[in-house]
């Protein structure tokens, strides 16, 4: 797992133009204008914090699968062009075990925790349906685990569609499936519980997701019952890994909007933007921040805010966003709304970075810390 590096001020970008948060909030009371057609979306990777407040305090993790579908007699049911079918070769027990296997493999490979033990469903005889019947304190005392992760519910709603029924599947919104004659939508509904040895209360996490497949993109998952089984295994693996990424600080794909323009410097900057070269992009945007064209100046300042965010300086980003808002011409509320949305994103991002600073640790240190603490016992 990559460590977090909170980068400081971008040299030469912010200068003396910093505007306070209070001034920005006051500026939101005024009206300004821009068209959303000038916006473009870029995909970026940001490290996101764990759903656990201080995962770095945990060394040993145990994973259990105790969902309600425990019997081999429960076969998998799915819809094929609105007709309910069953495949006796597919078992919920197998799919949910694959899911917890993927979770365990992910956590082990990331190296954040010193020890990860996967019990799958081998210890279900210890657990009743109601937590009140389980003596967790005694269990943790005997097991020595810092936290236990339970998969409590695992359910797929699986639907197959032919091309004429795309409009009901939601896949029509994805360009990559335009050439598919068969598509499949897996709606996942999972519940996880994370219980701690030293903390209360437990964390209950609902994992709901929609997974799409098309035979033009994933031909290996279509054409036979065995291929369909592989598709469901793939979904189970994805969900296990996705939940693992919620447990530790992880890099995740996010979208950010930025302004486009036919201005030459803005076009040069955009090329650097799209390549993830934020510093060079900022150098070109900076040329236009004092443009006589207020529209160009506002766009450049807004994009400077994004460059600062990507370089880890949220205060500078908020400053440039304030300047972008105040420098635009009077008109309708489009630009005001865009700035408000980004202001909200940056506010949340500041909170995330504060949490990350408490959570991130170097992976190699986890095992060392674990050994040293156990040696002192």
Structural description of this entry:
The strands form 2 sheets. Strands 2, 3, 4, 5, 6, 7 and 8 form a 7-stranded mixed β-sheet that branches. Strands 1-9 form a two-stranded antiparallel ribbon. It has 377 residues and is α/β, with parallel strands linked by helices. A hairpin with a 6-residue loop joins strand 7 (182-196) and strand 8 (203-214). The chain starts with 20 loop residues before the first helix and ends with a helix. The protein has helices at 21-27, 92-110, 136-143, 166-169, 225-247, 264-274, 278-287, 294-310, 314-327, 334-359, 363-375, and strands spanning 39-48, 60-65, 75-80, 83-91, 115-118, 147-162, 182-196, 203-214, 250-259. The chain folds into 2 domains: 21-48 and 252-359, Tetratricopeptide repeat domain (Serine Threonine Protein Phosphatase 5, Tetratricopeptide repeat), CATH 1.25.40.10; 55-248, 2-Layer Sandwich (Double Stranded RNA Binding Domain), CATH 3.30.160.150. The model is unreliable at 1-34 and 365-372 (pLDDT under 50). Helix 6 (264-274) packs antiparallel against helix 7 and helix 9 (314-327) runs antiparallel to helix 10 (334-359). 34% of the residues are buried.
